[in-house]
Amino acid sequence: MKTIRDKHITVVGLGKTGQALAGFLNARGAKVTAVDRSPESALGDIPARLRRAGVEVVLGEHDPAAFESSDLIVLSPGVPHTLESVVRAQNAGVPVTGEIELASWFIHTPIVAVTGTNGKTTVTRLIGEMLNASGLNAFVGGNLGTPLISYAHGPMDADVVVAEISSFQLDTADMFHPGVGVLLNITADHLDRYPNLRAYGRSKAKIFARQTRADIAVLNRGDDLIMELTRDIAAAKCLFNQEEDAACGAWIENAQMRVKTPEHGEMTIAATEVPLPGRHNMENATAAALAALAAGASREGVLRGLREFVADPHRLQFVGRFHGVDYYDDSKATNVDAVVRAVAAVSFPVVLILGGRDKGGGYEDLVPVVKDRVRALVLLGEASAAIERELGGLVQSVRTDSMDAAVAAAADLAEAGNTVLLSPACASFDLYDNYAQRGEDFQRAVKQTGKRADGSQADNT
């Protein structure tokens, strides 16, 4: 349904993207109803603003009849497509779509789309930096910031759209067609929403569903599930994390990244050019380079974009050094694979702060890295007991009830030359609104603990 004028359209969810959806559809003549389970008191001035614009706003428990009377239902990214009211409406013949699908109906700018369990934001932003450094005008958004529908609501004057895309957004994608699609990795995450890892992976692989032989798929050769799920896609494949030379691909050899495409030949990038710690970020850099080159970047732009890149906060962010102990904020690590990569990237032994709201994936994959590199565990939040059952027998572990207590315990357990790492392997919603708030609280507690220790500032900030 690409004609929306005078259609009765229900937007589900009034977060940032839901508000943008309601505004976009309303401006194009649709009869919009925006629904959210939150009470009016929790949404500030959002309901009043939308009503003034002519949008009907319905709050509280969903009315299935209202959903079933719609011409179209559009879901915000965090709203599951398995919601009972949505499923009932769909079974009654009401089409259901999501924000990226709807936006793609109206966007004619070439799209680079990035998905994966870990590294999406870093790679999306790296691609944008590489394209901009090549003299192109790249819009960077999607799941990481500005919604795609906001781009569709504007002048759409970019040369390239670079979008981070989540599995939740891909669940409702049908005609979404990026010219360049990137799938970084598939590891256990969101298993509170998907029945198993394969189902989660299938959602990720939908990013390639509408690609043709003229398009490019950038894939992680080292991920067996990715290679299985993308075996029969139509797009031309460029593989990173290769073990050897390839016509289009990238590999890491002797602390150097080798990137090769048919159009640009081979380029070598020293590990020192990557301003981010860890081998996983070298892999991210090669994936970004392949995608950027496929989307029109120059070799010089790739190198400049990489050199000048500044990572987002809460992703292995160095906080400070107190009494010879380094403190890192990796609050964005909300799954086990991200924690494994983080622990491997910092100096060890590590005092590791874990915990939060469990996401259903288990913690057994942390066993090898805890045995090899972790001195002690400090546990925080709802998942503390579950983590202690699986990992507590490997090293000393301490359960705490606040970030202040967790940081104080970690400081007591660490010795000079150690690293204290917040890398939770869990969502933040038990104690915080989001991972950023959790990371900011960690940084505050670290700095206060350091000052209390001897009344001094950090050794090196």
From TrEMBL:
InterPro entries documented for this protein: Mur-like_cat_sf (IPR036565), Mur_ligase_C (IPR004101), Mur_ligase_C_dom_sf (IPR036615), Mur_ligase_cen (IPR013221), MurD (IPR005762)
GO MF term set: ATP binding; UDP-N-acetylmuramoylalanine-D-glutamate ligase activity
Pathway: Cell wall biogenesis; peptidoglycan biosynthesis
Pfam families for this protein: Mur_ligase_C, Mur_ligase_M, MurD-like_N
Assigned EC number: 6.3.2.9
Catalytic reaction equation(s): UDP-N-acetyl-alpha-D-muramoyl-L-alanine + D-glutamate + ATP = UDP-N-acetyl-alpha-D-muramoyl-L-alanyl-D-glutamate + ADP + phosphate + H(+)
Record domain Mur ligase C-terminal: where: 314-426
UniProt cross-references to PANTHER family, sorted A to Z: UDP-N-ACETYLMURAMOYLALANINE--D-GLUTAMATE LIGASE
Protein's recorded name: UDP-N-acetylmuramoylalanine--D-glutamate ligase
GO biological process entries: cell division; cell wall organization; peptidoglycan biosynthetic process; regulation of cell shape
Keyword tags: ATP-binding, Cell cycle, Cell division, Cell shape, Cell wall biogenesis/degradation, Cytoplasm, Ligase, Nucleotide-binding, Peptidoglycan synthesis
Similarity annotation: Belongs to the MurCDEF family.
Cellular component terms (Gene Ontology): cytoplasm
Primary enzyme class: ligase
Residue ranges annotated for the Mur ligase central domain, each copy included: 114-292
Gene name of the record: murD
Record SUPFAM superfamilies: MurCD N-terminal domain, MurD-like peptide ligases, catalytic domain, MurD-like peptide ligases, peptide-binding domain
Protein location: Cytoplasm
Record-listed ATP binding positions: G116, T117, N118, G119, K120, T121, T122
Function: Cell wall formation. Catalyzes the addition of glutamate to the nucleotide precursor UDP-N-acetylmuramoyl-L-alanine (UMA).
